[in-house]
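User: My collaborator sent over this chain with a note saying "see what the structure looks like." That's all I know about it. Can you take a look?
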Amino acid sequence: MGWTIYAYLIQFLFWIPLTILFLRIALPLVRAPFSDPLVGWVYSVTNPLLRPLERHIPRWRNFSIAAALLFWLVAALEFMLLLRLNGHPGTWLVGGLLGAIGFATGFLIALIILSALFTLFQPRAGTSFVFLTDRLASPLVNRVRRHVPPVGPFDLSPAIAVLMLFVLRLLLAWATFQAAGG
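Assistant: Without extra context I'll predict from the sequence alone. Here is the result:
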C-alpha cells in the first residue's frame, strides 16, 4: 500500500517537469509561434536550465539536443526513485530512456485524442491551447492519413495513430519492466 502511494507521488511530481521539457522539445519541431503565451511561458521556464547547456551542446535544425538530454535525465531520475535507488546506474539510464519515450508516446496519445475531440466539438478557434494541440498532433496523424483513406465521412487516421502509439507504449512498458529486472 505504501509503495503504491510512493510510486504515484513520484510519477505525479515528475509529470510536471517532464511535460514542460517535452513541450520544449516538441514546440520548436512544429514551429509553434513564440508569440503564443503558452510557448513563451515554456521558454521562460526552461531557459534558465537550458541556456547554459545549449552553449556546449549544439542544436540540430529545430531539435534541442540539450532539452532532450535533460528530458532523458529527469526520466532517469524518476526511474531511479521508482526503483528505490536499487540497481545499477546503467539500468537507471536505460529505464529513463524507455520512460522518456513512453511519456512522450502517452502525451502524444492525449494530444491526438484532444485534437480529434476539438474537431468534433469546435471550441473557439482562437485559443492557443486548441491551436497548439492541433499543431502538435497533426504531423503524426497526417502521416497515417496519407496511407489510410477516409471511410465515407469518417476519418480513422487519429484512431489508427493512437492504436500504433498504444502498441509502442505497451512494448516500451514491457522493455522497462525487463530493464527493472522483472
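A starting point for your reply to your collaborator: Residues 2-179 form one domain.
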